[in-house]
Amino acid sequence: MGLTPDAAIEAVGFAAAITTTLCWLPQAIRLIRTRETRSISLSSYGFFSAGIALWLVYGLLLGNAPMIAANSVTLALTLTIVAMKLRYG
């Protein structure tokens, strides 16, 4: 007895969400620990954060749980990086 096709699609969505979200965690932790932001591009992270916010709104409008979860956490992590850049850059 395996997953239904819908459950399998949802599982792939959550796996993708977890993977792409966790990629920002090491950068955020490093910046919090070292406060070294010289190599961080504020404009890149700013535009990326704006894009993630739009993906979050899109996910909310669709009611897509993996998209909402991933973009909520990713937005929090990237905004942490932006805040660190603004404070220590």
UniProtKB/TrEMBL annotation:
Membrane topology classification: Multi-pass membrane protein
Subcellular location as annotated: Membrane
S-adenosyl-L-methionine as UniProt keyword: no
Keywords linked to the UniProt accession: Membrane, Transmembrane, Transmembrane helix
Location, primary (coarse class): membrane
Recorded GO MF terms: sugar transmembrane transporter activity
Transmembrane region(s): 12-32, 44-61, 67-86
Superkingdom, natural source: Bacteria
UniProt-listed InterPro entries: PQ-loop_rpt (IPR006603), SemiSWEET (IPR047662)
GO cellular component: membrane
NCBIfam families membership: SemiSWEET_2 (NF037968)
Full protein name: SemiSWEET transporter
Protein's organism: Blastochloris sulfoviridis
